Amino acid sequence: MGSNLQIPHNNWTPIRDRKSPALAGSKGFKHLFVPASPPPEERLQEAAKPQRRRRPPTGRKLACPRHLDQPLLGNGRKYYLHLLTSEELVARGMPAGKAKLVINAYPVLVLSSEWLEELYCASCGQKRWYHLTKAPDGAISLRLAPRDLWGQVAHVDPTVPNPTVGEFTRREARRHRDQKRMFE
Description:
- By secondary structure, the chain is of the alpha+beta class.
- The protein has a domain at 72-157.
- 20% of the residues lie in helices and 23% in strands.
- The chain is built from four helices and seven strands, in the order ββαββααβββα.
- It has helices spanning 40-48, 86-91, 96-105, 167-178; strands at 12-15, 32-35, 72-74, 79-83, 109-121, 126-134, 140-144.
- A hairpin with a 5-residue loop joins strand 6 and strand 7.
- 7% of the residues are buried.
């Protein structure tokens, strides 16, 4: 009895070996189709294609206010600002009536568009705290963070040292930080 099986695609070849592991225990199948290896020129084209789609990096590009050509580098730790009064919202441009409604609904309002972040400039050679503001169009503006903004950040006070650091460790770190270079 002749088989009228059609090859589903011209790149597929039939396997008629009954001893192959794919056909072991199958009684009703006479053919198993597997993809054939492509011709050499197609293999070269496939090798030249990238394995996945690559997109250009879209990270934020912040420049130092003093050195406009120098990018600022950060560790990604953001301290978001918290607002407690309606006057703070009015100062940011919200109508007074709406500001009172928002503060009544949310006693502590976290601003996801404003935060404090420590950034490093290689030209200056030091880290500074900046107040970053993200506009609705996605543009980020920055300025040096004034000390009074730290009152709007929860659980952080830069004037008080970390309570989990021991007295000896703090004293030794201060000694090494203030020490002049002894060796060149």
